[in-house]
Amino acid sequence: MRSYEEIRDERRQRLGLSPWEDLRQAYLENSIYLGAEAPRNCQEIEKNSDHMLVNRILLDLGLERVRKEGLDPDSCEALEILDEAHGIASDITGAFFQAVSAAQRRGAELEVAEARRAFSMRFRGEPRWFLSEVKKHGELQVDRDGLEYAVGRYLDSPYRDLQVDRLLVQALSDMEITAYVEEQVRPNPFPGRSRLQVQRASLLVGWLKVSAKAAGVLALYLVGLVGLYALVPNLPAAWLIAAGLAGGVIYLLFTLAVLVSAIRAGPKWRRMRETTETLIDKMTSFHVEMRGSGPISVRYLRDRMQQLTEAGVIWPQSLWSLLDDLEARAVARI
């Protein structure tokens, strides 16, 4: 029976790989999720995705460290370093496991758009229709605690890369932005509308709807009185008339109270709606800025984050830590 070393050397010779290339390829192959049954174009999407980019970059940084320390690529020390680098990459991409797992289960039925969303660390959607895209696809599918833990491991490690920094900034900011926007645009079971729709609704229309429902209750009450009279014909008619009038008075007082309340609440609801819409607009603008392919100024990034913080956004602490790390490394742009 041949040894592992013999099989490994034969494989390297057959594929024409150096020990370094073979080691790198082995780690990358273990990072692939989609099987052979998935459509070929979807497999290509995964190979060129944010997930694989993070894996390649951190593995290359690990290999660079191994070479600098003069270690043999097959030594235990080298494998420990590469396991650490690959482990950090796996923690980062593993935070998106829910979306990746769903794509994996789709198998041969997986569509290109699904694959792109599943293997992206950023929110995929048309910026012009950001609200409707979030409403349609939901927030960025990521484990918040898992991603923040992975960022912590990355910052505690000796590995740094500007592309990874940028992806993490985009992932962390999109995670917060899409979570807030979805909370505002997602329809609630009751009353069947989203928070934003409720805030945008006319108070007068709301009053009319409440009044109509109250009128329905009053109608049932009056029908009940008529039914009671039919069952007990000896009841004095004056009592029934008085009860009916009392119901009418209660209805009028109730609708009047609701109307007064709606008028008083008008300015408050208007401010709430304007605050929510303004915050969504600012967050959408930030998302679009981070989405571009051009360089992002670290100083500008901090200023924009601070502006949104003052507007009410609560950024993940790991995003601030990442920003501090960038500035400590004197990184001007990512």
Alpha carbon gyration radius: 31 Å
Mean pLDDT: 84
End-to-end distance, in Å?
A: 52 Å
How is the main sheet built?
Answer: none
**Series of secondary-structure elements, N-terminal to C-terminal:** HHHHHHHHHHHHHHH
Low-confidence stretches: none
Strand content: under 5%
In which range does the helix fraction lie? over 70%
Give me a quick take on this structure:
Keywords: Membrane, Transmembrane, Transmembrane helix. The chain is mainly alpha-helical and 334 residues long.
Describe this structure in words.
Keywords: Membrane, Transmembrane, Transmembrane helix. The chain crosses the membrane at residues 210-232, 238-263. The protein has 334 residues and is mainly alpha-helical. The chain has 2 domains: 4-191, no CATH class; 195-323, no CATH class. Helix content is 74%, strand content 0%. The protein has 15 helices and no strands. It has helices spanning 4-15, 19-29, 40-47, 50-68, 76-94, 97-106, 112-118, 130-137, 144-156, 162-185, 195-200, 203-231, 237-291, 298-311, 317-328. Helix 6 packs antiparallel against helix 7 (112-118) and helix 10 packs antiparallel against helix 13. The longest helix is centred in the last third of the chain and has 55 residues, at 237-291. The mean pLDDT is 84.
Short descriptors:
334 residues, mainly alpha, 2 domains, 0% strand, transmembrane helix, transmembrane, membrane
